[in-house]
Amino acid sequence: MRSVTRTIKRTLSVGVEPRLQSLIDRNQIPRASALLLQSKRSGYSPSPAHALRLIQVACASSPRYFAKNAYCVLQVLQQYPEVKPAVAVQCLEYFASHSVGNTYANHLFFHSWGEIKSLGPEKVTLAVASVLKVNADNGNSIAAIKAWRLAKHLVDSTKVAALLVRVFRCHHNDEEVHHELPQLGNSPELTSYMLSFYARRDPARFESLVSALETPLSRSARCDLLQAFIDGGDRARARAIIGSIGQTTPRELDLTVKWLIWDGKTHQARQLVQRTPIEVSKWGCLTLFKHTGNKDLLSQLHRLAGDPVLEQFAIEMVRSETNLKESIRCLIGILRDSSWHLHQSNRLYQKPPRVGLRVRLAPASLVHCIKTIAIKAVQRRDRESLRWAIEELRRSGWCLASTLEFLHFHDHEGYLKTTLKH
Fold first, then answer.
1. Is the same domain home to 206 and 292?
2. pTM of this prediction?
3. How many domains, the chain?
4. pLDDT tens-digit series, residues 180-197
5. Contacts of range 401-410, beta carbons closer than 8 Å, 24 or more positions apart
6. Cα–Cα distance between 322 and 202 in angstroms, integer?
7. What is the span of the domain harbouring residue 229?
8. Residue 218 · residue 246 · CB < 8 Å
9. Is 320 part of any domain?
10. How many other C-beta atoms are found inside a 10 Å radius of the C-beta of residue 220?
11. If DSSP codes are grouped into helix, strand and coil, which group holds residue 406?
12. 99 touches 78 (CB < 8 A)
């Protein structure tokens, strides 16, 4: 019986191996994966070298094949776990290269952490950076922080500082961020973020940071301090430093606008924005729009095509709608001319309004809008809108556990315990 089995396997190998190699060489990843996995299920297991080569070719393929190739890569890795040490980091970098790669990256990282953590500091850092990036790109700070907690004892935080700041900025739970910050190293990105965060949350740590700043303060450091004083409500020190802040960069002008509004001089802030070219006043214009809701401020935005500030205007427009259904219709209106298609949007929310803002939202900005709607839906007990938001988060690569954690954080009256049962 054993000899018969060996004969069958030799016969299979004669036909499978050359065909498999040919498919891989021609970049036919889905067909090659199907043949590889079907052969293994049939009793003949092609060499791991073929699995390794298939994964390497898939990860080097054109982005237009990403969805199919990423799925195939995960399937092959599950059947050939012995190749994970050789390609895990490459796969994570591949998944992180695409805006919808977070589902694949998180699955690989969390299911293969045992293998990844033994790869050495350089590769572990690359792996962690990939997972932080792809989750920051999709607004999923929950998965990103979970990954960081697993790996932080193996990674120099200064090497992923900018990514950590992106994650912390979109995280909903300040207590969790507060727990992580003291454990991080020193870097310009982290110091800038910590100044603003501690000004609002931890006065003692804030004063310690301020006293450690090198003097004379750089232009950037003065801006960081002014932002922190405004965030922390320290009017006296904000007034003392505002004179050293120029108005020649978008950030400086925005800080000046924030100070003027805080000082009760909204009309003066508006005049400053109006007489300054929109390329410089754009962030100040956004700050003024958040404060006043005056849509006349949108009139010059057509000159900023492709500018990231437009996404922040879109987020603010969705947030500022008092009616929840109108928030959803506003988002759909913003996305009308983009390639995004929201679940059941046409059926549930007909004839979205013309919002006067043409912008292609990045995945993180879209998720920010959806999260804003989800929070409103929980707080207002709107089941239909809540289910809409949950489905959109799922389509954005959020797992159910992350979605529920986010929603429960904002549910202060136990609404979800009853509504999610139905």
1. no
2. 0.90
3. 3
4. 999 999 899 999 999 999
5. 402/140, 402/142, 402/143, 405/142, 406/142, 406/172, 406/371, 406/374, 407/374, 407/378, 409/172, 409/173, 410/172, 410/374, 410/375, 410/378, 410/379
6. 32
7. 186-245
8. no
9. yes
10. 12
11. helix
12. no
